[in-house]
Amino acid sequence: MTRIRLVPVGNIDLAILEWLALTLKDNMEVACLLHHSGIDPTESYNPLRQQYNSTAILAKLLRLDTPPQEKLLAVTDVDLFIPILTFVYGEAQLDNRAAVVSVFRLRQEFYGLPADDSLFYQRCEKEALHELGHTFGLVHCPQFDCLMHYSNSIEQIDLKTNAFCLGCRKKLSAIGMRSPNALA
Hints:
Elements: E1 3-9, H1 14-28, E2 31-34, E3 45-46, E4 51-53, H2 54-62, E5 71-76, E6 80-81, E7 90-92, E8 98-102, H3 117-135, H4 154-159, H5 166-174
Parallel strand pairs: 1-2, 1-5, 4-6, 5-8
Antiparallel strand pairs: 3-4, 7-8
Helix pairs in contact: 1-3
């Protein structure tokens, strides 16, 4: 049975991890647990960009001593990048075990707007499910409202539902995964 292990990176608020553990368990019908210790992102910091390299964080994540059948989701509050993009909300290994998601750009305050905790947690859920979808072999989906649709702006995240489309659900089902949040 697949399990998801949530790994804190940096100074991420424990409440976010605990909430993700509950919602991911419900959404994917898999056991979800918190890792006992976190990852220090310091070595992945790029002073020229003033951001953290998500690929370097993934490499650190894979060095953790965890059971190989577990999916690993690192969650951080630092701003992430990959060299070819200005920023990323997350990164994952396709059809493998590791993913990282950042909450840095998911808060309304980042855009100069009043705080909205409900919207923030919805965005966290969507991005965590999206990156985990990649670890289960899902690629970006052309349907704008599917969780697996590519998002390079916060507006695109908000347009998505918190559900996989029928096509993505079928792909998950083919590997023995369920997505009860998306039954239509």
